């Protein structure tokens, strides 16, 4: 042939015209052909040009077969030579047998991949960052020497490299530079993935690139991703005619054909007892034992007799004819297996061959157990050696494997079986439709089915194979395959007995040690037939150099059992290339196609049968993905080269049907599932009648709907088509089919492409698994590979990025996830391949533990719903009219009217809190107001009315005398929770100063807590700080100086030892509208805001709470809240003084050392009303969940609690409150006791659920139980409320936030137009009440934005009332319940803070909803927070488990957010527990977290940038 063309591009298939065709060609065409020959012989034209021109000349004259494209024709095995020759003899001259057509070169795929990659040189991708500890290979076996781990060869993995094995010298590719120069300011990694990577030949990146670069690359990617799927206008459509079913040759009639397989066994066993049947080899390749037909017959009889007569339970025979029996034999003991198999058949039992379970948790073992259980197997046969090696229980018996039924294990070795009496002989019946054996098969999803094969089908299959392969009596055959199932069983156990053949069985363990062993045995035994897989050919190529004196000339058939796999062609070609010199004839290679259901579907006949020559096809992969056959004429990179698998089996009728839906016949140029109607197929899936009907009783129909035949067909699960000369071509299997966006891709093809990127250099032993997972209504491709133990991070990402590019270029499909795992960690199938379904299961469960992962949702998720387009808003007036017309009331509600409530409230006559305290000190001086508990649960301090009053006086004197403060000065109170804080608060009021309560800095964490203290002191313009001596020292310490400028503190006074002086007079403010105190708090969005509370608002707040909660001097309440802001401060410092009840104070900080402190106190003091925060509730739920029994033994009893209120400024956390109620139900807590409250900056108490237990007579102010509704989360994103049933998809439970307080009015308004909204509409909650705050003292940094928060009016409707905007979204809903006054109850539902919401794809998302989904994704996710960064969604998860689980979370988080929220996660950050900042109310500080992420302060375990 001419020199090899260096391009390596495939050319369309051409054909030698046959002599008959040559004679029919017109004279001018023959002349032109002769001219071409001459040009070629004289070197005026290249071989390629010659073939192209010649193809054009011949194209019109080549007959079309079955409508297939003419160029899809036959590549003759004995091709014409390309040497110059006289034109006349040209068409008849045979080509040299070894000149191989350039188009089918094995290294082609590698070249195609390299060419594809060259196009992508400059694409950059972001490198994830990883903590050092995660870089350590987690697998202990990662460095096992090759010989031990090679048990892990995937059957399909190595042979695919046949395409690569002979590849041209590897070209060093231009480096794919680091994906992002620098992802965030500083490095986004505190780890080894250094941001200044310099590759050989690549440039080192500067370290100070802006943080924008990462964001912009990803944002660009998103912008260019088409998010709505469009049908491809250029999609190819099949154009051929409807195919007609294809008949195989008729089954020949043989006169002496036995009536059954057992009759054949009896015949050879008695007539030819010395004839060898099976030779078993040891791991050195030496023959261990040769079983003769006589021995097989007698030993099988012995076993049959023993099974039927010697096994009994309670004098009943254990087995009856037709019972199923498990055969558990190792792969190196074919003799014992064969005896057991035929022994069962003779005893009329049904053998179920399975793999030997090695551990209690083998991959797929549970499913095998399920099969055994459903088959009713009670007995397992095995060998003595195998039984000894099985895992044992303590009793010494074989352990029960997970999911397996209880089995009796019977050892079939000689000493355990008995000789039958002379008069006993097994029944030898004619082959019937009774089940002969059950072969197991694992489906794509991992479930295991048993395929039943009848005696008749077993016999007919042997008959058909004998005819197709031309088997004759006494032939020698070498078998490398698993003899328990598939072709290994058919050729090596069944058909051999039919034809008295001698089988040389080569164990898998020998192949691992010596891949050439099968070739050596062919040579030494002069075997006529060998049964192998492509992998075996590939392995022998790698080690053939040592062997010189081998001859394969004895072979008349080399059956390639997996010849249906598209990549087997490269193994066959490469093998022929090498071994042709050793006597292997090209025509000997016979690929075949088979499946467990249809058994052998087609096989290439040996040449002596006079069949047409074999064919090859070069097909366009793009067209194949649409199920259309087009020969690739444009020399593209993405092509699939196929070899035929021969003709269909004798006696079979074959057709090709559409794989999905009704089985319509395909057109001739369409790929479909091959169906077989024949007496040689399996009968059913055992015990699965529905699936059986679908697979074994398919009735293919024509386009008009009429059945093709009256015989049922069996689906073979092979995808293919019928080509020229009625040859069958297979393009893939249903199990490997992945339908992505309507296009079909084959897992094996994707594997071949991935391996071609850098064959054998990176992937450990070629172990790659490709499967699809369903995410967001479409299949997504996942590639998992084992990386070599010595691979660096750099290598990994280089390889991953190139694999993505190669697959994208060649298959035009995006990979959703690419994961690398340490060597030897993927689950193994019995013969060492990768257990795909188990790998997929681990991926979905987050148990794969990859060491590198790359997700590409942006590029491959193309079916997201369209982004929401904001419509121009309907005006508020139209809204009101619309609501009126629809009969909807305006959404407003109010608490009871304070003015009309008569009560004996003595405190009402006082305008100021300081007056109330003075009055109580005189009226009830010794009445205890406060009781503070320490961590041990003992009383740390108490305060009666008079004690508090006197202490407050001393503070006031100190402020005036030592501090020389003026009226109206602001004073910061920096105290730990306790009575000192309360006393100094009233001391400030006595002195006419304005108190500001500030949480003291944490001594162990000054760097982050002290700046907040400093900021509040500065922003509140405090002129003095009151505190304890200990904190005063801390504020001026060296450590404090490192965090803030300690010289700029205002005057600091400690109040530990104050002189006992009487205050001359208590300050009286001139008007109640004057400022009483400032309430500072940091919102969840990170804004520090101080609100002004007037004396009037303070008194109104206390009165409202007193009325709602029925607080009297005789009551005790327990408070476990922080006393620094909001409702916590009011309950701690104000309410007891106003209402006179006793408050038991439990500082939440003390719970860290004694979790049960709060609940023990509630029980000890028999408290009816208690308040806590979500963080306290969570602490109790997590810390005491398993200790309720211990608490009961300590007499903790919560049956006294009528109301436990959670103080919060957020949506009620239903899951937490429910689990709290559930856990402590055992301690007497009523399920109705827990309720929620709602307050915010503008009004600290809008809703409080009062105590509701007790009978109706004393219900008083009690209202109905809080209601829960379910809303559609998708509607919520569009700012709409749609109520749905519980449990419906996308439903979100919302709990009412409590009953609206007396004197409070609430309305729902549109935040943009400020118009009122109707009932059950989502809008901003506005509030009007006498205890609203009067305004922000200062909002740090955002003053202008909040001007209208406190005094805003509706744009339509009631335009007079002044409202305060809460900044929270919610809705009101009138319920069927009535409250105490008989009015219908209006329930307020809080959905979330407006400032917190994420605007993504035109919709409004609440972080908590996304976080709830993420936390559910994996058991090791302890907490989660989300925020946005340059339009990307960033998800931070806390990992509560080993760091090797970190990378498992990336895919799970991405999946769940896509599935439930239709959002693509941009960045996944995995951090340690406790990294997500949470404030004292238990709310996540997402903006602080965002700042920490951008400043690279999170010390993440792993940061993944999704592409």
Describe this structure in words.
- It is elongated, with a radius of gyration of 41 Å.
- The chain contains 43 helices and 60 strands.
- Helices cover 29% and strands 21% of the residues.
- Residues 1-23, 63-106, 136-228 and 1253-1261 have low confidence and may be disordered.
- The strands form 15 sheets. A 9-stranded mixed beta sheet has the order 4-3-14-13-15-16-17-18-21, with helices on both faces.
- The protein has 1507 residues and is of the alpha/beta class.
The percent range for helix content is 25-40%
How would a crystallographer describe the biggest sheet? 9 strands, mixed
Q: Which structural category do the helix and sheet elements fall into?
A: alpha/beta
How many beta-strand segments? 60
**Mean pLDDT across every amino acid position:** 83
Number of helices: 43
Radius of gyration: 41 Å
- In terms of quaternary structure, the protein is single chain
Low-confidence stretches: 1-23, 63-106, 136-228, 1253-1261
Q: What is the rounded distance between the termini? A: 47 Å
**What's the arrangement of strands in the largest beta sheet?**
4-3-14-13-15-16-17-18-21
Share of β-strand residues: 15-25%
Global outline: elongated
Mind sketching the topology for me?
Layout (H helix, E strand, L loop, with lengths): L18 H6 L2 H15 L5 H12 L49 H11 L10 E2 L1 H4 L10 H4 L7 H4 L1 H4 L46 H12 L22 E2 L13 H11 L4 E6 L5 E6 H17 L2 E2 L2 E2 L6 E5 L5 H13 L3 E5 L10 H10 L4 E4 L1 H6 L18 E4 L23 E8 L5 E7 H15 L6 E4 L6 H13 L3 E4 L2 H6 L3 H9 L3 E4 L1 H10 L13 E4 L7 H12 L9 E7 L3 E5 L12 E5 H5 L13 E5 L3 E2 L4 E5 L14 E6 L6 E2 L3 H8 L17 E9 L5 E6 L3 E4 L2 E4 H11 L5 E13 L2 E10 L5 H19 L3 E8 L13 H10 L6 E4 L1 H4 L15 H10 L6 E3 L18 H11 L4 E6 L5 E6 H17 L8 E5 L4 H13 L2 E5 L7 H14 L2 E6 L1 H7 L2 H6 L7 E4 L20 E8 L5 E7 H15 L6 E5 L5 H14 L2 E4 L11 H8 L4 E4 ...
Parallel strand pairs: 3-14, 7-8, 7-9, 9-10, 13-14, 13-15, 15-16, 16-17, 30-31, 34-43, 36-37, 36-38, 38-39, 42-43, 42-44, 44-45, 45-46, 58-59
Antiparallel strand pairs: 1-60, 2-22, 3-4, 5-6, 11-12, 12-24, 17-18, 18-21, 19-20, 22-23, 23-25, 25-26, 27-28, 29-30, 31-32, 33-50, 34-35, 40-41, 41-52, 46-47, 48-49, 50-51, 51-53, 53-54, 55-56, 57-58, 59-60
């Amino acid at each position: 042939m001419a020199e090899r063309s260096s391009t390596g591009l495939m050319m369309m298939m051409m054909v030698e015209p046959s002599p008959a065709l040559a004679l029919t060609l017109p004279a001018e065409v023959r002349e032109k052909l002769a001219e071409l020959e001459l040009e070629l012989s004289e070197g005026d034209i290249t071989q390629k040009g010659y073939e192209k021109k010649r193809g054009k000349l011949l194209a019109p004259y080549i007959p079309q077969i079955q409508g297939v494209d003419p160029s899809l024709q036959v590549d003759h095995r004995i091709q014409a030579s390309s040497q110059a020759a006289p034109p006349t003899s040209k068409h008849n001259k045979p080509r040299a047998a070894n000149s191989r057509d350039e188009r089918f070169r094995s290294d082609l795929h590698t070249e195609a991949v390299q060419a594809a990659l060259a196009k992508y040189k400059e694409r950059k991708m972001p490198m994830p960052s990883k903590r050092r500890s995660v870089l350590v290979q987690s697998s202990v076996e990662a460095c096992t020497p090759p010989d031990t781990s090679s048990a892990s060869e995937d059957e399909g993995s190595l042979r695919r490299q046949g395409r690569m094995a002979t590849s041209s010298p590897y070209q060093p590719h231009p480096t794919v530079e680091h994906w992002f120069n620098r992802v965030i300011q500083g490095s986004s990694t505190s780890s080894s993935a250094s941001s200044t990577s310099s590759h050989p030949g690549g440039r080192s990146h500067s370290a100070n690139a802006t943080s924008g670069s990462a964001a912009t690359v990803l944002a660009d990617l998103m912008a260019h991703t088409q998010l709505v799927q469009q049908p491809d206008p250029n999609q190819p459509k099949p154009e051929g005619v409807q195919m007609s079913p294809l008949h195989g040759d008729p089954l020949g009639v043989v006169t002496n054909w036995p009536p059954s397989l057992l009759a054949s066994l009896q015949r050879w066993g008695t007539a030819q007892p010395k004839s060898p049947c099976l030779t078993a080899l040891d791991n050195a390749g030496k023959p261990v034992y040769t079983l003769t037909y006589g021995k097989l017959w007698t030993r099988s009889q012995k076993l049959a007799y023993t099974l039927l007569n010697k096994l009994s339970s309670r004098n009943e025979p254990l087995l009856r004819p037709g019972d199923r029996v498990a055969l558990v034999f190792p792969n190196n003991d074919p003799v014992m297996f064969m005896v057991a198999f035929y022994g069962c058949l003779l005893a009329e039992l049904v053998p179920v061959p399975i793999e030997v379970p090695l551990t209690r948790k083998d991959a797929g073992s549970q499913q095998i157990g399920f099969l055994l259980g459903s088959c009713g197997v009670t007995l397992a046969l095995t060998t003595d050696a195998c039984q000894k090696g099985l895992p044992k229980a303590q009793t010494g018996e074989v352990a029960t494997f997970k999911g397996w039924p209880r089995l009796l294990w019977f050892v079939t070795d000689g000493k355990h079986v008995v000789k039958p009496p002379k008069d006993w002989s097994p029944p030898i019946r004619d082959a019937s439709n009774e089940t002969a054996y059950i072969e197991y098969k694992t489906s794509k999803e991992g479930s295991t089915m048993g395929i039943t094969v009848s005696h008749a089908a077993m016999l007919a299959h042997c008959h058909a194979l004998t005819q197709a392969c031309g088997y004759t009596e006494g032939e020698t055959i070498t078998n490398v395959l698993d003899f328990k199932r598939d072709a290994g069983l058919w050729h090596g156990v069944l058909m051999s007995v039919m034809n008295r053949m001698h089988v040389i069985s080569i164990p898998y363990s020998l192949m691992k040690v010596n891949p050439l062993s099968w070739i050596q045995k062919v040579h030494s035994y002069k075997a006529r037939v060998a049964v192998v897989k492509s992998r075996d050919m590939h392995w022998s190529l790698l080690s053939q150099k040592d062997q010189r004196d081998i001859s394969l000339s004895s072979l008349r058939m080399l059956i390639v059992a997996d010849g249906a796999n598209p990549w087997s062609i490269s193994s066959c070609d490469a093998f022929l290339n090498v071994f042709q010199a050793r006597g292997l004839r090209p025509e000997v290679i016979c690929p075949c196609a088979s499946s467990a259901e249809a058994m052998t579907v087609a096989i290439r006949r040996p040449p002596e049968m006079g069949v047409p020559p074999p064919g090859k096809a070069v097909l366009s992969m793009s067209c194949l993905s649409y199920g259309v056959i087009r020969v690739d004429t444009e020399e593209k990179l993405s092509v699939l080269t196929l070899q035929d698998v021969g003709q269909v089996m004798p006696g079979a009728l074959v057709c090709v049907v559409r794989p999905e839906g009704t089985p319509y016949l395909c057109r001739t140029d369409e790929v479909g599932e091959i169906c077989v109607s024949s007496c040689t197929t399996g009968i059913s899936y055992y015990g699965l009648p529905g699936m059986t009907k679908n697979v074994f009783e398919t009735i293919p129909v024509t386009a008009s709907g009429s059945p093709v035949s009256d015989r049922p067909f069996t689906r073979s699960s092979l995808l293919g088509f019928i080509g020229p000369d009625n040859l069958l071509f297979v393009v893939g299997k249903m199990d490997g089919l992945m339908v992505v966006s309507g296009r079909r891709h084959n897992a094996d093809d994707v594997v071949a492409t991935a391996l071609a990127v850098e064959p054998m250099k990176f992937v450990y032993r070629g172990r790659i698994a490709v499967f699809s997972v369903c995410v967001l209504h479409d299949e997504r491709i996942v590639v998992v590979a084992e990386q070599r133990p010595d691979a660096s991070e750099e290598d990994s990402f280089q390889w991953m990025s190139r694999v993505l590019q190669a697959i994208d270029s060649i298959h035009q499909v995006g990979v959703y996830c690419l994961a690398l795992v340490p060597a030897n960690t993927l689950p193994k199938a019995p013969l060492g391949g990768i257990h795909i379904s188990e790998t997929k299961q681990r991926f979905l469960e987050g148990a794969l533990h990859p060491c590198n992962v790359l997700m590409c949702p942006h590029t491959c998720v193309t079916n997201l719903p369209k982004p929401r387009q904001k419509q121009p808003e309907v005006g508020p007036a139209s809204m009101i009219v619309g609501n009126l017309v629809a009969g909807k009331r305006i959404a407003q509600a109010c608490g009871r009217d304070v003015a009309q409530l008569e009560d004996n409230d003595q405190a009402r006559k006082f305008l100021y809190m300081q007056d109330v305290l003075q009055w109580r000190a005189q009226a009830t001086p010794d009445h205890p107001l406060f009781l503070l508990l320490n961590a041990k649960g003992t009383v740390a301090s108490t305060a009666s009315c008079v004690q508090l009053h006197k202490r407050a006086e001393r503070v006031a004197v100190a402020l005036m005398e030592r501090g020389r403060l003026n009226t109206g000065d602001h004073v910061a109170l920096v105290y730990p929770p306790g009575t000192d804080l309360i006393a100094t608060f009233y001391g400030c009021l006595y002195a006419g100063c304005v108190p500001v309560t500030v949480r003291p800095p944490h001594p162990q964490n000054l760097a982050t807590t002290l700046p907040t203290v400093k900021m509040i002191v500065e922003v509140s313009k405090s002129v003095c700080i009151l505190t304890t001596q200990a904190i005063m020292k801390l504020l001026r310490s060296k450590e404090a100086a490192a965090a803030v400028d300690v010289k700029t503190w205002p005057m600091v006074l400690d109040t530990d030892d104050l002189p006992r002086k009487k205050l001359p007079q208590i300050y009286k403010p001139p008007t109640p509208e004057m400022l009483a105190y400032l309430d500072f708090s940091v919102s969840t969005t990170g804004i520090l805001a101080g609100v002004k509370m007037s004396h009037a608002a303070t008194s109104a707040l206390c009165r409202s709470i007193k009325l709602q909660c029925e607080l009297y001097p005789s009551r005790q309440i327990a408070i476990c809240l922080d006393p620094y802001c909001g409702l916590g401060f009011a309950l701690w410092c104000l309410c007891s003084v106003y209402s006179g009840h006793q408050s038991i104070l439990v500082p939440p900080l003390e719970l860290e050392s004694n979790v049960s402190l709060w609940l023990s106190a509630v029980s000890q003091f028999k408290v009816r009303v208690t308040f806590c925060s979500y963080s306290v509730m969570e602490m109790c739920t997590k810390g005491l969940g398993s200790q309720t029994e211990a608490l009961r033994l300590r007499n903790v009893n919560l049956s006294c609690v009528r109301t436990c209120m959670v103080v919060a400024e957020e949506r009620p956390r239903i899951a937490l409150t429910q689990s709290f109620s559930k856990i402590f139900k055992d301690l007497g807590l009523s399920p109705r006791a827990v309720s929620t409250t709602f307050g915010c900056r503008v009004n600290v108490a809008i809703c409080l659920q009062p105590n509701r237990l007790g009978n109706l007579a004393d219900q008083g102010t009690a209202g109905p139980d809080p209601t829960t509704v379910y809303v559609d989360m998708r509607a919520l994103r569009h700012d709409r409320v749609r109520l749905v049933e519980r449990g419906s998809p996308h439903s979100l439970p919302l709990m009412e936030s409590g009953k609206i307080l007396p004197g409070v009015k609430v309305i729902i308004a549109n935040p943009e137009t400020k118009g009122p909204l109707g009932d059950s509409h989502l809008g901003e909650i506005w509030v009007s009440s006498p205890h609203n705050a009067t305004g922000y003292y200062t909002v740090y940094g955002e003053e202008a934005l909040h001007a209208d928060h406190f005094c805003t009016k509706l744009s339509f409707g009631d335009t007079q009332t002044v409202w305060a905007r809460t900044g929270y979204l919610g809705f009101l809903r009138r319920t069927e319940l009535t409250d105490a006054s008989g009015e219908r109850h209006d329930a307020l539902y809080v959905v979330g803070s407006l400032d917190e919401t994420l605007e993504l794809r035109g919709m409004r998302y609440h972080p908590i909803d996304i976080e709830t989904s993420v936390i559910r994704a994996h058991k090791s996710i302890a907490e989660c927070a989300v925020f946005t960064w340059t339009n990307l969604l960033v998800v931070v998860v806390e990992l509560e488990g080993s760091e090797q689980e970190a990378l498992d979370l990336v895919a799970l988080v991405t999946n769940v957010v896509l599935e439930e929220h239709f959002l693509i996660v941009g960045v996944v950050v995995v951090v340690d527990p406790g990294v997500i900042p949470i404030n004292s109310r238990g709310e996540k500080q997402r903006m602080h977290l965002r700042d920490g992420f951008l400043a690279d302060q999170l010390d993440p375990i792993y940061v993944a940038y999704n592409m």
